[in-house]
Structures are given as structure tokens and as C-alpha cells.
Design a protein that fits this description.
Blueprint (H helix, E strand, L loop, with lengths): L1 H23 L42 E6 L4 E2 L2 E2 L10 E6 L4 E4 L5 E3 L5 H7 L10 H7 L3
Antiparallel strand pairs: 1-4, 2-3, 4-5, 5-6
Length: 146
Amino acid sequence: MFRRNRADREFREAQRAGQAVLATHTEWPEAPARVTAPIPAAPADTAVAPDFVPPDFRPVTRQDVEGFMMRWDMPLVIDGEVHTCHCGAYRNWIVFNMRNDSIWLRCEAGHATEESRLDTAWYNRNSLPVDAFHPTLEEGLRHLGH
């Protein structure tokens, strides 16, 4: 108990001493003006390196692909009701997010329908990061197990 009181007292005394030092400095000195040297011009015969990433190192963007796809193994609930295909399937969907921001659902039997109640924001909230890019739809479906 006495050790804590002594530490508190020493801390308060250090605070008072610091405030006394700050009180003596009523006016702060002005910062010196920054002096910059002019930038020398590049010689005309020197090739300037481009300021962007080479095409081989650029990531794939939305405009480079036809769309994205993900598996949805659970029953798909939209507006409070379970979405079913006309063949009776209600789970194991492949969800496509196309370049034009439309969402398409494909059941295991291969029936595909556009779902207007879902949007790209829903897809982005529920999808994982892209793990692979495929040149054809069949290869993408094979990758996802369909």
C-alpha cells in the first residue's frame, strides 16, 4: 500500500515539474523554412520506365472475365422461402455472378435460371476469394464438383 502511494506521489510531482517547464515556454519558436533544390530535368535520350504494372503481373479484373461462380451447398433461402428448381432440387447450387451484374442459379441437373432477387452485393457478401480462373464453363463446373 505504501509503495503505491509513493509511486503515485512521485508521478504527480513529475507531472507538476513538467507543467512548470511548459509554462516557461509561452511562445514556441517558428519552424525553419524548408529549402528544396530544384529537380533536375531528365536527359532527352534517357528512356523513362512506365509507371504501371506490366500486363503479366496485373490481377484479373471483372472486365477480363465473363463472370464468377461459387458453390452453394445449403438450401438457398431468398425472401424467407427456400428456392427450389422446377426439377425439385433445393440445395447444391452453382451461383453465377455475370459481368452484367445478373445472378444465375444452376442446379445439379443442369437447369439454369436467372434470379432477380439476388444481386452482386449479395454475391460479394457470401462468396470466398477467387481461387482459380478457368477458360471454359465446363472446366469451372468440374472444378466445383458438378
